[in-house]
Structure formats: C-alpha cells, structure tokens
Amino acid sequence: MRQVRLGAGAGFSGDRIEPAVELAEQGELDYLVFECLAERTIALAQQARRRDPASGFDPLLEARFEAVLPACRARGTRIVTNMGAANPLAAAERTRQIARRLGLGSLVIAAVTGDDVMAGLDGDIVLDETGQRVADLGDMLVSANAYLGAEAITEALAGGADIVLTGRAADPSLYVGPIVHAFGWTFDDWHRLGQATLAGHLLECAGQVTGGYFADPGFKDVQGLDRLGFPIGTFAEDGSLVISKVAGSGGCVTPATCKEQILYEVHDPACYLTPDVSADFSQVRVETIGPDRVRVVGGSGRARPAGLKVSLGLMEGFVGEGQISYAGAGAVARGELAREIVRERLARAGLPLQELRCDLIGLDALHGAGLARSGSEPYEVRLRVAARTASAAVARRIGEEVEALYTNGPAGGGGVSRQVREVLGIRSALIPRAQVRPTITWLEA
Amino acid sequence: MKLRAIAHSRSGDKGDISNLSLIAYDPADYPVLLREVTAQRVKTHFSAFVAGEVVRYEIASLGALNFVMRQALGGGVTRSLALDTHGKSLSSALLDLEIDGSRGPSAAAEPFEDHPSQKQTRED
After folding, report:
1. Contact B59 A368 (CB under 8 A)
2. Which of A184, A191, A422, B117 has its CA 20 to 30 A from that of A363?
3. Tens of pLDDT along A143-196?
4. Which domain holds residue A53?
5. Testing the interface with B: which of A220, A265, A297, A383 to mutate, by most B Cβ within 10 A?
6. How far apart are CA A121 and CA A115, in angstroms?
7. Helix (H, G, I), strand (E, B) or coil at A280
C-alpha cells in the first residue's frame, strides 16, 4: 500500500530547531512541515510588516532553513510551512537567498498568498465574540487574515514546489495538502479529508504528541525530555496513521500521548471545523504496534463549512504590570498587605483602569483562592498587579506603584519587575469563501 | 481518591473558550469518569472563573471525556490579565477533584464497548 511520511519540524513559532534537523537527517521523510502561527502571531507579524515591508515572516525562518535545507535537499524531502506569516512573498525571497548561499542547486519555491483580507473587508461582517460590525471597529482593526485550507498547498506541490510557504493556513491543512497530493485525492472526499485532518491535528503541535507537555512525575513519566524528538506520521492510502519518532530521540509515543493530542483544542469531537472539512474524531481508536509506535484509525468527516474563519487583530489599549516578591516567615501576610496597599493607592489616584487584577503568585494567582489548597503556607509569594488601560502612561503607573513598595510598603520586598505592553486582541468572524482567493507565486533558486 | 489516580488531562484554548480532555489510563475506568465527572461537577469546580456553560462530550472509543467551558479565560487569551492567559494549568485543577473510584454496579450500566457513539450533556 502507498504511504507518505510526514515529519513535524515545529509546533509553534519559537519551537526548538534540533529535532527538525534530526528528522530531516534520519526521519526518511517525504515532507517536513513547520507549523509556526498561533492566533496572535499573524497579527503581530502584520504590525512588523507595517514597520518594515521586507519583514513580517517568521523570525526563525532563516535559522530553520539553514539548519534543515541541506539534509532535505540531499534526501528529496519537500517542505511545507506557514512561516510566511504576514509576508509569504518576502519569506520566499529570503528562502531563495538562503538556498543560493548554501549552494543547493535548483530549488522551486511556492508562496501562497490571499489570506490577508484586510483590504476591502466587508464592513457588515459581524464578530463572533461581541456581535460588533467590522465597520464599527474603526482604527482599532489592524489585521484580518482568513484561514486558508489545503487546496493551494496541494496545487503548489503538484506544480513541483520543493518548498511551500503560506501565511494564515489552518494548522492541519499544512499536512492535509501533502497527503491529498500524494494519493491524488480530491477536495470533496470528506471521509478521506477527515482522516488526513486527524493526521494533521496529531502532528501539528510537534512535540506535544511525543511526550512534550505530558510529563507528570510518578503518574506520567517521560524519559529524555531534554532531547525530546518530534513526531513522524506515516499515513497510508487506507487512511490509517502511524505516529513514531526517530529511534534514540527523547520522549515517548504512547496511546496516552496520542489521546491527549487528539482532543487538544477540540470542542465537539464529532465536528472539528477546518477550511477543508468538518472532521469527525469521535470514533478514533489508538493502539500500540511497537516501541514508540502508535496506530491511529477511525477519523472521518463531512462537508466543509460554507464560510471561512477570519482572525481579526484589534488594538485594545495597554496592560501595565508590576511584580514584587516576599519570602520567609510571614511572607503571605506581607504579600497580602502589599496587595491591599497597592489597591488603595490605585483607587485613591482615580486612574481610569478598565480592569485590575492583583494576585499572589504561589498562593492564588492561577486558580484563585477557592481552589488553592489550604494547609502549610508557601515559603515565598510574589505579588503581581496587572491592569488594562487606554493609555500607555496610565499603564506605566501600575509598575510604578508596585516599585514604590520598596520604601513605602511592607518589610523585605524584593525583585521588582515592571512592564507595559500593547494589547493586540484577536477576534474572529466568518466570511464567504468567494471573498478569499488563494494565489501562488513561484520563485526559483 | 483524587481523579488524578485514574485519569490524565490536557487543556486547550480558543479565544475565551477552554477545553479540558479527561482520559482514563485504563479504559475500564471510563464508566467511573462518566459517573463521577459530570458537566455540573466541573462547572461547580471552576465556578470562580468560568462564567459560561460547560458542555461534556463523551468519546467512548478513547475512554475519554472532553469538557468545553465558555467565558473561561478572562475575556480571551490575548486580552486577559491572568498570569496563565491560556488556562494551560486548568487541567491540573481538574485532576484535583475528589471522586469515588469504585467500579461499582452503577458503572456497569454504561458498557464501554457498546457505548453510544456520541453523547453530550451541558450545564448552563
């Protein structure tokens, strides 16, 4: 039976590069896929591009390609990635320069654009979260990117691309594209697209299916996390998938690691929506077939959603934050006193804060006072004060009030840190497919 | 016993929605999860910060449940003031639930192999 071997070279923009090199050199891959765009990453990249028209693609593109291209070239492994981010054309140009510098011979690069729908966005489109109209967002709106599916990727591969660079493509689609191309499937074969999407979903977070984000000592032990290997998906024409990793790499592939990833960021398991298909993971089964080898079957799908999801980046003011630590005897009491002092001072100053939050890290910061375990006091706590405001100047006041606790607060406070960041909120909406036209641009190195 | 003794969990985020998988280490304990960890139980456990509904999906073939909690992330990952904006740490809070771990007769009413393919319950 025909098979295609896909390696996951990254699960997020800042991911480790060594496992990708390991895969490129030892994974015997047909495709190496890098998924590098979170919801907010694309909006941040759009801002970077506005400051510098030659930027806006993944900051690690150069380092990744320099590390993996020689091995990929030598073995005929093709690359699919959304590292194009807000600027796939500039990413393709940079990739061409890297390939030339490395002396890799002729190389075909395809850049997929069309996800940026900011220009000419219909003002009557309504935000999912708030019901606001796009037209009412005014200057707040800084980016709008539609989630493209796998079709343009498949087309680029059919056209001979060695490297496919996209912007906002749906994460699993980066894997669906090569699978559909490998077997000559069509984009209305919902059952098979569902199977391919399950494969993409399992692989898209890279190390999260090989024992990363899994270890819980004494309950879920994972060996060699310091040299965690990334997954290989061997997808067969019958729709079955085997998840494995390079022999000798760290981590593990077990039914448990696969189950956690199958349900990761899933809502209704019978209806996981992507641009390609309404995938059905509700009948999936997993079984161990060897050491660090798990077989996954049972994915399916139904007709794709009529609209495409668009991610909208909105400037929503500023967050100011300050932190200070207390330790030793009475640390909690001093931390709580410090919290009260800052609250009072901020209230008296009458600052226009949209929201204020004061937590004691080590006591109640993550899950609130209700879930925090009663019993022995922590040895140390860290007060964290954060507030959202309309202006950077007001946001700075938060850190200043925390810093003032040095000489104006309880005894023994130390290690103040303060920061102000601009809030780039992400909202979503649906737009008709007809308003999105994926385009492929070809470059040759 | 703590839920942690028989199940593991991973949190995921999309906007202001958090989902928590809950997976039995041993499929034989899946009926215990079905009986003990209801949508209502989870809604109550996280009442301090989950403002919206909690929906429970059942995935019998994986011996797993999936809880989808709305208005759970302080307005969404990108604007929340929380330290853990993604709610990544919520899975550990779920596993802290105290449960009756017995595979009693009441659990036998939901045979693992023949369980209906897809069921969901919600708590508003």
Report:
1. no
2. A422
3. 999 999 999 999 999 999 999 999 999 999 999 999 999 999 999 999 999 999
4. 3-311+429-444
5. A265
6. 12
7. strand
